[in-house]
Design goal:
Alpha-Beta Plaits, alpha+beta, 5 strands, about 230 residues, single chain, 9 helices
């Protein structure tokens, strides 16, 4: 930056003094128009833009002058708008980042400690039947289940929602494009789980990309192969 500053204060002005010759602007523009026919089009556009911008600037200047001459009225109008807009407060969101409906949700279930993988699979089948009762068939694209203990480091790196025993399972649900709000289905499933599956723990880790980023990268898409993995369309 220092070298650039020195160059712009020494060599550049010296070269400009020798290279940029004084000339007649009108005659040079006439020569350029004869040489480049499109120059007249660009020149006309430039003049139209400059005239329009000058009118806009003058209008803004007049409006600002009007506001300064009537400062008391202007302050009263601004305060009035501020008071009126407070009526919109009940409609404002409460999240710093609004939720994104990506059409997918991840459901983690945990059976009682000591449950065998076969019993976990049977319970997950029943939970899936319940999910298909809650979500209409024309809105459900498919489900993917990951059950049991990860048996390799790759599984562990991709699966970070806590499937640490044979009693754990993940159910990744995908919805079709035209679907009802995902949170609506989640709340209905949560209610059914508390009523129909007593003793089964359930939570919903972030499934869409935005929620995962806001959650500092936790709960990435499940591409692992657990001890038992199933896919259903």
């Amino acid at each position: 930056m220092i070298a650039s500053y020195i160059l712009s204060r020494t060599l550049i002005p010296t070269l400009a003094m020798y290279w940029i010759k004084r000339h007649n602007k009108a005659s040079d523009q006439g020569k350029v128009r004869k040489t480049f026919p499109l120059f007249s089009l660009f020149s006309a556009f430039h003049r139209w833009f400059e005239n329009g911008f000058e009118e806009f600037r003058e209008g803004y200047h007049d409006l600002l002058s009007l506001g300064l001459r009537n400062a008391d009225k202007l302050v009263a109008i601004v305060l009035g708008f501020t008071v009126v807009t407070t009526a919109l407060f009940p409609f404002l969101g409460q999240d710093f980042f609004p939720s994104v409906d990506a059409g997918t949700f991840d459901m983690h279930v945990r059976m009682e400690a000591g449950t065998r993988i076969e019993e976990t699979a049977r319970s997950v089948d029943e939970i899936e039947q319940m999910i298909r009762q809650v979500i209409p068939a024309n809105q459900l694209q498919g489900t993917i289940d990951n059950l049991g203990i990860p048996y390799s480091g790759i599984n562990t790196s991709y699966n970070n929602t806590g499937t640490m025993s044979a009693a754990d399972g993940d159910i990744l649900v995908s919805l079709n494009e035209n679907h009802d709000p995902t949170n609506k289905f989640i709340e209905a499933i949560r209610t059914r789980m508390q009523r129909d599956f007593v003793g089964v723990g359930v939570w919903f880790p972030p499934a869409d990309m935005v929620a995962q980023i806001l959650n500092f990268g936790a709960a990435g898409p499940h591409r692992c192969s657990d001890r038992r993995s199933r896919s259903r369309g």
